[in-house]
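Posting for a labmate who doesn't have an account.
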Amino acid sequence: MEKHEINGPVHPSSSGSNGHNVRSPAHQPNFNSRAVQEALEHLASVDLSELFNEAKTEYCRATRDLRRCGRYVKYVLNSCGHASLCAECCQRCDLCPICRIPLASGNNRLQLCLFDECIDAGLISRRYGDIFQNKEDRDDQINADVQRLNSFFDVSLENNLVSLVCHYVTDICMDETAVSSDAITALLLDEKVVKDWVKRKFKNITTELQQIYYLKVGETEKSLCLLHKYSAYLASLSSILEVLESSFKGRPLAQLHDLHHLQESILKTKQHLEIIMWCIRHQFLEHVRSRHANFTSWHNLVRERKSAATARAWPDVVDRSADSTRQDGSLFIEDALANLDIEQACDQELGEESYFAFLLKDSSSFSRSKIEGLRGCYPFESLQAAVDILFLCGSSDLVVAKQAIFVYYLFDRHWSRPEEEWRDIVDDFATSFGINRHSLLESFIFCLLDDHTDEALQESFQLLPEISGPTTHPKIARVLLERQNPEVAHMVLRWSGRDDGSQLVSLSEAVTVVWVKVECRLLTEAFTYQRMLCTKVREKNFKYGPSEDGQCRCWMDWTEILVSELCCLCIRRNLVDRIIELPWNSDEEKYIHKCLLDCATDDPSSANGSLLLVFYLQDAL
C-alpha cells in the first residue's frame, strides 16, 4: 500500500492546493543518507531567531546591466550569513550587497540555505521549492514565506522535532522584543501563523483519516502503521496548542475560544482514532458472535429492561422540582450517557465549525441519537456507531467515562456467551487503554444490574465483593433494594463505609441507606443513622451556611425527609409499634406525628390511629 504523508514532500499552498497530497514511496527520503541526517541536524540546531529569516524567500541583489539580477537565492554567504547572491553572481562579486563584508576566498564562499538543504535531502518537495524560482509566482510574497515557514514545521512534526515548534512559540512569538517594521517578518513572528498551520495540518489529517475509515474492514488493517503515525501527529499538535493557549492568555475571549475548540477537536479525534485502531486490530468484532440475534432484538431487550426498572423503581423523594430531569427507574447506561451531556455538546459543535463531523461513518445512528434523545443512543446499532457517538461527541475530558461505557457495551454484547469466545477481547481492550480490573468489573456489574433477568442478578452477586469499597457507586445499593435484595444492598453499603453516618453523603444516598436498614429490620440502626447524619448537616450549616447544591436548603429538610421516609416505610411494613418506642427528639416527633396522622386519616380502620394515640400519651408522660 502507498504510504501517505501529511504535506510532505508536496506541500499545499493556501490558495492553489486542496491539501490532500500524498507522497508516493518514490519520493520518500532515505533517512540513512548523510544528506537527510545533516538536514535534520541543521534544522534541530538552528537558532530560532534565524528560522523566520530562513523561511523568507530571497532574490539576488547583485547589479547586472544597471538592474538587479533578481534570481532566486539558494545559498547563504559563509562570511556573513546573508542570502543575498545567486551562485553565478557570487563568482563575480567581492562584497555582500547587504552588509558590504568581503566574501570568503576560494570555493568556501557558500552553503545551502536550510530550506533548499531540506529540498535536496527529499524532506520537502522539489516541485514546491521550484515555485519560488519563477518570477511570475513572486506576487504573493507573504503567502509564499508563510508556506516556507510552515514547511519547516511540517518537517519537524514528521521527524519528531515538534519541540522546535513549541520553542518557536515561546522564544520567538511570545518575545515582546522580537518586533519588525517589515510586514513579512512581522507576520512570521506572529503566533497566529502557528495556529493557522496547526488548523490546516489537522484538517489535512482528518481528510486522510476519512479516506481510511471508509475502507472495508479487511483493507483498513494495512493502514494501521499509518494510523499510529497520525495519532502521534495529533498528540504533537495538541502539545503545540497547549503552548499557544498559554501565549493567548489575556487576549480576547473569541481567540481563546477558537483555540479551545480546535484543541477539543484534536483530542477527540485522537481518542476516536485510538479506539478505531483497536477495532481494526479485532476486525470490528465481525468474527465474534453477539448474544443478540440482531439489533432489533437487542433494542427490544433494552426497552424491556427500562420498563422493568421503571415498574420496580422507588419514588424519588428528594428532587420533585418541576424542572428536574431525573427519571425514576433509570438504567445505569442512561445515567452514564446523560453525564456525557451528548446532546448539548453535539448541538454546540454543530453550531460552529466542526473539524471532524465528516469522520462519522454511520451518520444515521448519530441522527437517531439526536432525534430520539438519550434513549435512542443505546443500544448502538454497530461497533462503529458506538465509537463514533461516544468518542466524537462530549468533552474530551470524559474519555475515561466513555471507555467505561464502551466496556459496558462489550459486556452487554457478549456476556452470556461462552467466555472463551469473547473474554480475551474485553481483556485486551482493558490492557490497551489502561483500565484496571476494578473499573472493568464495575462496568460489568452495571450491565448485569441493568439486565432484568434473575440470571444476571445472581451473576452480579458473585462480583460485588470484588468492587465494593469507598468508591462504590451509590446507585448499586438502591437497585439491589428495588430488586428485593435488601440484605445484599446492606452488605454493599457496609463495605463502602457509608452506612454508619460517620461521613456526609448526598441526601438521596442517605434516604437509600435508611430504606435498606428498615427493609432489613434494623430500625435502631436506621434511627441512629438519621440522627447522626442530621446532626452533622446541622453542624455544617451553622459553620458554613446552608448548602447551595439545590438538593436541600438546611438541616431541617434532611430531618423531615429522613424521618418521614423511615416512618412511612415502617407503616407499610407494619413496624409502627417499634418506631414509637424509639427516643425521638422534639424536631423529629412532629414528622412522626404527621406521618401517623396522615396514614390514620387515609385508612381509619388501620391501627395507626391507636398507635398515634399511644405516641401522644408517651410524649405527654
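Reply:
Got it, the C-alpha cells are right above this. Confidence is low (pLDDT under 50) at residues 1-26, 320-326.
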